[in-house]
């Protein structure tokens, strides 16, 4: 398969690319690095991305920023970080990819554990991750040509504990390589409308 990995230079993206590259052709995409550059917040850039890479068999996203902060301090600008980046960025990818994937192709997005297990300072992240999962379930019943869509919901990564550990006291961390297995299950499996939890 020819697989586009968006966010390929990130912790999860590197693990996913490494895991899938053993069996498939990988096209790495990032906002500032990769085989192709694209900021998924801009649907015009997403369209240019797929014009450049042509027909593919799978698209996976391992990117999308969210803002962590106290609820009382969250204003429209802080909420917009996750809405524009992690939510609408991935929606942009899914909608354009649906036109560019080969029949039977797949789209894999990323959410996160706080969709179901909220944390202090994570109201925006919980909102965005829940919305991503809702989009996946809704889109799955409408995608044409046998296309599939799923989401991966990881817990905090072992590799990211220095940065995010203080938000996740009491949570069991997982490795990026274990998260990559869930991406493989989505890309190389047969299910659609699923949220694969890696907790």
From TrEMBL:
The entry's keywords = Oxidoreductase
Q: Which CDD domains match?
A: Lin1944_like_SDR_c
Keyword Oxidoreductase present in the record's keywords: the answer is yes
| A Pfam family hit | adh_short_C2
The record's annotation in InterPro entries points to:
NAD(P)-bd_dom_sf, SDR_DHRS6-like, SDR_fam
Keyword Oxidoreductase: yes or no? yes
Q: Which Gene3D superfamilies match?
A: NAD(P)-binding Rossmann-like Domain
Q: Specify the superkingdom.
A: Bacteria
Family, per entry: Belongs to the short-chain dehydrogenases/reductases (SDR) family.
What's the protein called, per UniProt?
Short chain dehydrogenase
Give the originating organism.
Massilia mucilaginosa
- The organism's taxonomic lineage, starting at the top: Bacteria, Pseudomonadati, Pseudomonadota, Betaproteobacteria, Burkholderiales
């Amino acid at each position: 398969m020819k697989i586009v990995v968006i966010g390929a230079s990130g912790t999860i993206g590197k693990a996913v690319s490494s895991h899938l590259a053993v069996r498939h052709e990988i096209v790495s995409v990032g906002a500032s690095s990769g085989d192709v550059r694209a900021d998924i917040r801009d649907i015009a850039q997403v369209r240019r991305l797929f014009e450049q890479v042509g027909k593919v068999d799978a698209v996976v996203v391992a990117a999308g920023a969210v803002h962590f902060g106290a609820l009382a301090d969250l204003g429209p600008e802080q909420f917009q970080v996750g809405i524009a980046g992690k939510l609408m960025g991935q929606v942009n990818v899914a909608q354009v990819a649906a036109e560019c994937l080969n029949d039977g192709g797949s789209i894999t997005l990323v959410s996160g554990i706080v969709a179901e297990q909220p944390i202090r300072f994570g109201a925006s992240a919980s909102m965005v991750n829940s919305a991503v999962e809702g989009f996946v379930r809704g889109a799955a019943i409408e995608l044409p040509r046998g296309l599939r869509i799923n989401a991966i919901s990881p817990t905090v990564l072992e590799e990211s504990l220095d940065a995010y550990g203080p938000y996740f006291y009491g949570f069991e961390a997982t490795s990026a390589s274990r998260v990559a297995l869930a991406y493989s299950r989505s890309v190389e499996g047969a299910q659609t409308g699923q949220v694969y939890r890696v907790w």
